[in-house]
Design brief:
single chain, alpha+beta, Fructose-1,6-Bisphosphatase, Chain A, domain 1, D-Maltodextrin-Binding Protein, domain 2, 28% strand
Length: 261
């Protein structure tokens, strides 16, 4: 395992311990509202602080971008707009699930080096499932190599989506794409949806309104597991636009064709 990935795994497990401990007494959680249907707890903040502390101790010249803390400059070295190394962190993707005791949430940690995601960790603390990837070295689940599914028939494809409440409206550009598949799941946790595409549990994912911390680690997992990722135009601007398609090589072009019909 790459040394930087190994450090990220340690950070994820440290955060996972905090989250698992809190999950035993959810009634005591202090929950704040960041926006409509957007929640944050003291556990989110504590987990993110633990992750940043672990990584910053090992790599004081690295910068951070966290869902809760925003942009954090490197402890050492120049404060530049585009750092050479930047860790992108979501301490709990799926906070709404977490506060309801629904075990569909995960920690996401990715390292961006000179604009390219090079390391990825997605950790599901409730199931103790650790998804990891280093660019060019494949994707793994608990040290076992994973691959996207071999699904080729779109009508048999199981998809996940993060598209809001009106996606099945007849006027939605996503309606045909979703209705023609076997079924669509809304997990409430984008990083797990992408990890599940990488592991072959889902055949594809489509999402809008997503942030870099939702996409960075999961996107690399899918690519290293043999899948494809793009924005809705088939280009590589998904980290910037927050609009993403991700799927197996056979299902991906069919999803793209529905959106561009």
């Amino acid at each position: 395992m790459h040394p930087m990935l190994n450090t990220a795994v340690k950070a994820a497990r440290r955060a996972g311990t905090i989250i698992n401990r809190a999950s035993l007494d959810l009634e005591r959680l202090q929950v704040a509202r960041k926006g409509p249907k957007d929640y944050v707890t003291e556990v989110d903040r504590a987990a993110e602080e633990a992750i940043i502390d672990t990584l910053a101790t090992a790599y004081p010249t690295h910068a951070f971008l966290g869902e809760e803390t925003g942009r954090v400059k490197a402890a050492e070295g120049p404060d530049v707009e585009t750092p050479e190394y930047q860790w992108v962190i979501d301490p709990i993707d799926g906070t709404t699930n977490f506060i309801h005791g629904l075990p569909l949430y995960a920690i996401s940690i990715a390292l961006i080096h000179r604009g390219q995601v090079t390391q990825a960790v997605v950790y599901d603390p409730s199931a103790n499932e650790l998804f990891t990837a280093s660019r060019g070295s494949g994707a793994f689940l608990n040290d076992r190599r994973i691959r996207v599914s071999g699904q080729i028939r779109y009508h048999d494809a199981l998809l996940a989506a993060h598209l809001g409440n009106s996606v099945m409206n007849g006027d939605s550009p996503f309606a045909d794409m979703l209705s023609e598949s076997a079924a669509v799941r809304r997990l409430g946790c984008t990083v797990l949806a992408l990890a599940y595409v990488a592991a072959g549990r889902l055949d594809g994912f489509c999402g809008v309104g997503l942030k870099p911390w939702d996409l960075a680690a999961g996107g690399l997992l899918v690519l290293e597991a043999g899948g494809l990722v793009s924005d809705f135009d088939g280009e590589q601007q998904w980290m910037k636009t927050g609009r993403v398609l991700s799927a197996t090589p056979k299902i991906f072009p069919q999803m793209l064709s529905y959106l561009n019909a």
